[in-house]
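hi! just following up on the protien thing from before. the input was this:
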Amino acid sequence: MMFDRHEEIEKWYYEVVERFRQKGAVSSDKAMSAEELGLPPGFEVAMKRRLGQSGVFVEVNGKYYLSEERLKQIGELRSASEAAWVSRKKIQRLRIIQVITAVLFVALFAVNLFVQSLELRVISILFLVIWLAISIFQIYYVSRIRKRMSPRAYYAKRALTARFAAYFSPNF
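and the predicted 3d structure came back as:
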């Protein structure tokens, strides 16, 4: 249900962006009123809330224009957020595989205490090596992600992501 609302808001948002472009309201000197743009009455109310805070639509003396620069920034931010989400999912999968490997190692080690078998020892060692390889890969992967962002850029993107997420929340 929430995804339907999110998609509905996003669709409306891009329709409004296109309307601004079609009417040519893309700079302060070409700003138009909501009526001239054919926008619904809810647009002006939304501009007083999160939509106005996003900076994509700018109000000048009761008229509005589209800030293409801000729209581009938000698009880049969204791409970065999606890339970060994919990275988090990969790290999460590595952690799950790491836990499963550790559990199998401990189980085989425990069985090997009661049943002295060379095959069980070899398999246990194999699971230990796999677990260590996954741990090293995980450390490498996380450090590579962190090197891409300086701390200042990380916190700036985080703040913009929160602002962007707030814009698309159902309560606007």
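Strands lie at 57-60, 63-66.
The chain is about 75% helix and 5% strand.
cheers
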